[in-house]
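Exercise 7 asks you to align residues with tokens for two separate proteins.
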Amino acid sequence: MSTVREPLPVVLVGARGHGGHHLANIARLQRRGLVRLAGVCDVRPLGPQELDGFPGAEQSPDLDSLLASTGARIAVVCTPIQTHTDLALVAARRGAHLLLEKPPAPSYAEFRRMADGVAAAGAACQIGFQALGSHALPAIRSLLDDGAIGDVRGIGAAGAWVRDEAYFRRSPWAGRRRLDGVDVVDGVLTNPLAHAVSTALALAGSTRAEDVARVETELFRANAVESDDTSCVRVTTARGGRVTVAATLCAKAAAEPYVMVHGTRGRITFWYKQDQVLLQRTGHGPEESVHGRTDLLENLVRHLTEGAALLAPPEVCGAFMRVVEAVRTAPDPVELPPSAWHFAQDGGAPRRVVPGVDALVAAGATSLRLYSELGAPWARPAEVAAS
């Protein structure tokens, strides 16, 4: 005899901006009978049209009281980075389990306070690295285990995106390293292209904090902000592997970010937003494949109702947080001189472009070298920070 389960009540914390994607996903899972939106916590309440399809959903700017009144089993937290830890702990102490947007915290100390506190409260926690739900990851690991590209020499990742100047004005914390004395660390590697870092570390089999031996950073900014918008990082793992990630928000043209695994007899390229894999190896033609993906909120629901293993719990984000900590403690990003960038001439909103950075980002992923080692005219070896 089958058991009919009631949909799990969910509270969405932070419904504006990226929170809209979570609202749409909750609606999708609600139609499948897996969850129901019990409440929305935001300083600006949603209007009737925005809540169409969510009958009975309560609203309050106070998360503790909203959890108490709704009895929500899950809290989806999509708020400014510096608020994650406190909100996660409020939810956990109220008995709610968590889907916490990435990056989980602005510092390693705050990450540990969050992860330890949530665990002590007995709450399950999933970090919003959606690419970790890609079925391409186990497929690539299987290829590596089978020796498809020989011995792994290193892993590179590239992210060349464009963001206009309004992007850095979207909220008071955008583009900030600190706000009112509190760490934010909203840089290209730690927020918009954090998935490239996390996915590269996952493919390296180095996801825990103790898997990281050394982190080298080169942080630059073309925009008039505090945080870095054009940066690279190289992680040396405890096993001696190398993971290099090069990223920018000042590309000439936006490109799909990817992770590249280099082997002695070939390479594997993974476009993680598209779940697309390209295998290139000696003696074979190129082999392409596209894979499915497990949604992280659905995975959390299955964990709570069926005991499924979590795909992105805090313990597999420790290495990523070591990178965040290295970025946080590095010297402030070097301001690029006006000669190193120009405004795009494409008729769109004003945005700054660093000429040649698209090729530099790709070269970093291919060669596993930092910008200074690639001869970028605005990057000098003395600007490398290591921890």
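Second protein for Exercise 7:
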Amino acid sequence: MSNFIGAYGVGILMIWRLVLVVFSILLLLMIPSIIYQKALKRISRKVRDESNKAGNILEQWISSIRTVYSFVGERKSIEDYCAALEGCVELGVKQSLVKGLFFGSCGFVTGFAIRALLSYYGSILVMYNGVHGGNVYMVTLALFWGGKRLASGLLNIKDFAEAAAANKRVMEVIKRVPKIDSENCQALDNMTGEIEFKRVKFAYPSGPESIGLKDFSLKIPRGKTVAFVGGSGSAVIALLQRFYNPTAGEILLDGVVINKLQPKWLRYQMSLVSKEPALFATTIKENTLWQRGCIYGTSY
């Protein structure tokens, strides 16, 4: 921008009429820039979404690499990941096409259109207005290079477009209001530990079409030992700890709906060791106590 402003400032001081003629053609440079920015912003947002899909698949396979290896699922993992990347490849081709059209239009305007216009109108000024040919050449050179610097500066629109696309996602996370209220809740003075599920329906947010629990009802008295068999057992525990809210139905602790209980207090009443626990180099007792004390922050 400094080169552009300086070059055109020199041109205005020397032959202002030549500069005014060039300004008319600069619109041909600005129109492709505006189109390029909007198209690139839209494509960048789609690339980010497709990359997230592929990244989620990769993360799942890597986090369960021992299971994948034990069931000889490496080839299937690679095929799934490659299939997820196909969307990124198609969008990358579109992105390259948009870039090529933009660079080509900028090169045509700055390299040919501006030079041709300056040469034509400059010759008219020399022949009929008594302008010195050397001054026309100097102004032509200054405006030509100023236009090229402006075109090269506009190439940074890509970075601004990608930043704007990423910023939208970041702001969505920052402005998100959690559905689980952790402030305006109560804690029980005396807890007996009676748990009841009333017609609970639940599906994970990442897969709403896959129902984990449907019309699930169960009452567990105090001191009762219960075993859940199947993939829905982890969903029951996650709901009980209020890491998720049920889609329908209620979960009660001592007759009180757990939505009215403080999540921090509720999780502090439980101890959980998952199928893949994080154990530290200490005793079993200390590991259990640590997990009980930190369960309200992260589940292990």
